[in-house]
Amino acid sequence: MEVHPLSSFAYRSITHAFLGPEPPVRIRFPDGSALGPTDAKTTIIIRSDDALKHIVRAPGELGVARAYVSGALDVEGNLWGFVDLQELLPDVHFSPRETARLLRLLGPEAILHPPQIPAEEVSIGGPFGRHTRRSDAEAVSHHYDVGNEFYRLVLGPSWTYSCAVFTSAEDSLEQAQAQKYDLIARKLGLQPGMRLLDVGCGWGGMALHAAEHYGVDVVGITISEAQAEMARARVAEAGLGDRIEIRIQDYRDLDDGPFDAISSIGMFEHVGADHLRHYFEILHGLLVPGGRLLNHQIGRRPGSATRLRHNERTAVHRRGFVHRYVFPNGELHEIGALVNGIQRSGFEVRHVESLREHYALTLRHWVNNLDANWPRAVALVGEGRARVWRLYMAGSSSQFRKGTIEIHQVLASKSTGGVSGMGWRPTW
What we know:
alpha/beta, 18 helices, elongated, single chain, seven-stranded mixed beta sheet, four-stranded mixed beta sheet
């Protein structure tokens, strides 16, 4: 059956429902008509009616993401003007009457033959928040086993997939990542001969820095086979095989303590609210008395989300772009709840630092790396997957810049008998 494009009236009506009568960006429709300021720095291109069908059927960020990942919607000019629209998109479904009106504008084809959901969308089996070994392994594999070469293009020579620490905006990404590792090493008080556990070691960045610059022995664990393979290769290339051991191991299976210090960098998002206390109890049991833990994790702002019942949390989780395409089964925690959980596990929290602005800048660097290597990235993982990462990183940068999500380093000590093993004031 031949499918006719929508009328100009339908395009404008549907756009008004989401962005109002005067959108802040230029929008160009398949019939050649357009809406919005002619001098806008950002132009959204609706390449096919499937874009609007996705958006109407899944109002909010998920529908827009499906349209963008599938290629039915594209962006010219300033990408950041596009991701900033997330503030204007409704985060709730339309009323049945409004949905019916929009579907009538789309025509019977939208109901009888809805657009295909992009293949990049995934659902990890099992109830949300369960975090079994199997579901965690599936989620980590979905995100990290995309291919080491793809991550090298995005992350650059540091192979570091976590927030960098900048002394100024003029720092290179590689310099800022080294500064992050050095800050963590100083907070942990690393000294030659110590034994460090790096939980969620990624491609080995922290392990390499700690062994090379601080003379410690390191055990790094990950459940990503691709990460472990590359981390081991980097360790061998650096000639540090006698100082660093990289394992494919779940944190719940660790039993060979004690360690003098533990770093957990960008891993805690995979643990889950129901496992928060158990996670830190395991790490507490692996540390020597007076040993230190540095937990570096993304968090969310406090608010109504902290009071959602489990079934409501599940619904929010399952309809979000990040959970469907990027971090299936990932969870963010509010910093107060995190500190409470760490202390309930026996630790004494000694220092908390926010790095929110640093992550906004880190992500901009990653987006720039991806854009600069776009043809190669598409060849490696496909255009849909490359679009997922571009949208995810740009959107996350915008959220960190605006303060809707946060990131903190929390330093804790296994204090014993009132002795923390730390000085009166930070010396880093």
